Amino acid sequence: MTAPTYPDLRDASVFITGGGSGIGAxxxxxxxxxxxxxxxxxxxxxxxxxxxMEQATGNRPLFLQGDVTDIAGLRAAMDRxxxxxxxxxxxxxxxxxxxxxxxxxxxxxxxxWSQSINLKSYFFACQHAIRGMxxxxxxxxxxxxxxxxxxxxxxxxIYTASNGGITAMSRSLAREFGPDGIRVNALAPGWVLTxxxxxxxxxxxxxxxxxxRQCLKEHLxxxxxxxxxxxxxxxxxxxxxxxxxxxxxxxxxxx
Length: 255
Prior knowledge:
Layout: E1 13-17, H1 22-33, E2 37-42, H2 47-57, E3 62-65, H3 71-85, E4 90-93, H4 108-136, E5 139-144, H5 148-151, H6 157-177, E6 182-189, H7 195-200, H8 204-213, H9 226-233, E7 244-247
């Protein structure tokens, strides 16, 4: 898949949460190929991935090992990215965990853990990036949501609540910080077949049932999410803010 070129992304300072695996790894590569200065945070060692990306794109990302639920550590990682690449003007909140759970079995500790990854970290990453974007005269934020809450899916109610919260939060931030030239949009992917999904939840029956719901009869791959993200993070979408863009092969219908 050939990506359009967005000249304003060249040399832009981009920060991606969870940018070393799954959809996040594809996002990191996509921005690197645009010539952006990319930093990403992740829990697992991504040194080999960094070397691979430099060899593949000629552009080396900055890996900052950490856990997004550690808000002080997240802020410190963003500060290090800004020191290395300049003020962050493109933030992509991608890190998430859709661990399945049963409502009647959830305890308070699990609830807090899930929300800390799937919503709390998004808010504080936005908050920290916005301060720099205000000083820089503007910026673009892409917050990853999911169609799971639009479908009313069972099996992970705390995760779907977080997704709904991400969309609502994005709209409120877009309203509050639009006067500063800061755009905030949500991107809601469908069922993207990352290796984690294939290993843990993508059984043949479930895959067939989901594909039957799609208008386009082809499963989504991580690469399918890259171009929409680049569009939202670039000036090509300069008058688009407070929106939720769905990329799901035609499962849910918005509007």
